[in-house]
Amino acid sequence: MRILDSIDDALITELRQKQEFFWLDLSAPTDEQVQHIGSLLKLHPLAVEDSVRFHQRPKLDTYGDTALLVLEGGVESQPEDENPHPLEEVHCHLSGDYVVTLHRQPYAGLDELKKLFQQTELSKTERYYVYKIIDVVVDSYFPMLADLDEQINDLEDAIVSGAGKQELAETFRLKRLLLKLRKAVVPMRDVFAREIEVIADLAGLEPDSHDYFRDVYDHLIRITDELDSYHEMVAGCTDLYLSTVANRQGETSKQLTIIASIFLPLSFLTGFFGMNFSWEVGHVLVGPWSFLLLGLGTMVVSAGLMWWWFHHKGWTGSDD
Predict the structure, then answer these.
(1) Domain ranges of the chain
(2) 2-245 falls under which CATH superfamily?
């Protein structure tokens, strides 16, 4: 199989005349280049129009002996990095004579696959090469899933340590990311579930095992299941956040209640002594010791008794 990184009219025409299978991979093609490759390979106008516009939903459209397969691959991002564009749309124009892949940004998975084909010089069937290109795009989600698992675990630990606005924002970010990934993976899964044989049976495509594309379908099912489980984990993080905040508010309310309860008898004592001040200074609080014992002493004793009672009931300690 020949691998091309640019449009070479003479070489492409020669390869087609020889019926030699080739792979043309274009990164960030212009509209004129897409239309030119469409006229050169006689692609269907609707397929060319979709590749010019991009922003297509994952799908498989067949046009006689050719087909347009739209995939969305994952763009790996480490947990500490911000990745505003986690997906890359890849258009695959399939035929028995060639496969053309178009994408707006350089795609590392396809670049590594091209190096692998060039270094190993594998002698495989055309159907195998098509399978490997699709498989690389689909398998690009697995590193992202591993990163998501780590991010969710770190988020759970952060919420338990102390739930704040940052943890809440991270929870909503993960929810949006999981929803975006699921919207990309589920249509691809449905395509391979319904039309898996269409790709394998394209006219002119050298026959081989149909199990290749069933393997892609199995990977998509696994990815979907993991995304669903991660969505449940993030939903659990939301519940954990609300529970942690409620517990913190309950602890604060308990502390304020204890303080208010201690000051309740103190308020009574100061009110009692204040209303009977003239009589007390004439009959009871004659000396300084009387003031200290009856005035301040009763308040200290009442506060101490209240604190002892709360400690005895276990209200002053932590919930641990």
Answers:
(1) 2-245, 276-320
(2) CorA soluble domain-like (3.30.460.20)
Question: pLDDT tens digits for 231-286?
Answer: 888 888 887 777 777 777 676 776 777 677 777 777 776 776 665 655 665 566 66
Smallest Cα–Cα separation from 229: which of 178, 273, 194?
178
**Phi-psi category of residue 167: left, alpha or beta, with phi > 0 → left and psi -120 to 50 → alpha:** alpha
Q: What is the mean pLDDT of residues 111-137?
A: 84
Angle value at C-alpha 93, between 15 and 35, nearest 5 degrees = 85
Q: For the chain, give the number of residues.
A: 320
Q: What is the pLDDT of residues 11-32, one digit of tens each?
A: 988 888 888 889 999 999 999 9
Q: Which residues of 95-125 are buried (b: 16+ CB within 10 A; e: fewer)?
A: bbbbbbbbbeeebebbeebbeebeeeeeeeb
- Smallest CA-to-CA distance from 75 within 134, 126, 19, 140 is with 140
- Cα distance between residue 109 and residue 134, in whole Å: 10
Provide the b/e sequence for 10-25 (b: ≥16 CB within 10 Å): eebeebbeeeebbbbb
Cα–Cα distance measured from residue 220 to residue 188, given in angstroms and rounded to the nearest whole number: 7
What are the two backbone dihedrals, phi and then psi, of residue 86, each rounded to the nearest 5 degrees? -80, -5
How remote is the C-alpha of 47 from its chain's centroid? 31
- 269: number of Cβ within 10 Å: 17
* CB within 8 Å of 141: residues ≥ 6 apart: 73, 74, 181, 185, 223
Q: Are 306 and 257 in contact (CB under 8 A)?
A: no
Written in H, E and C, the secondary structure of 16-27 is HHHCCCEEEEEE
Q: In the beta sheet, which residues pair with residue 98?
A: 22
Task: Report which residue type is found at 75.
Answer: V
Query: From CA 320, how far away is CA 311, in angstroms rounded?
Result: 15
224 token code pair: 């979907």
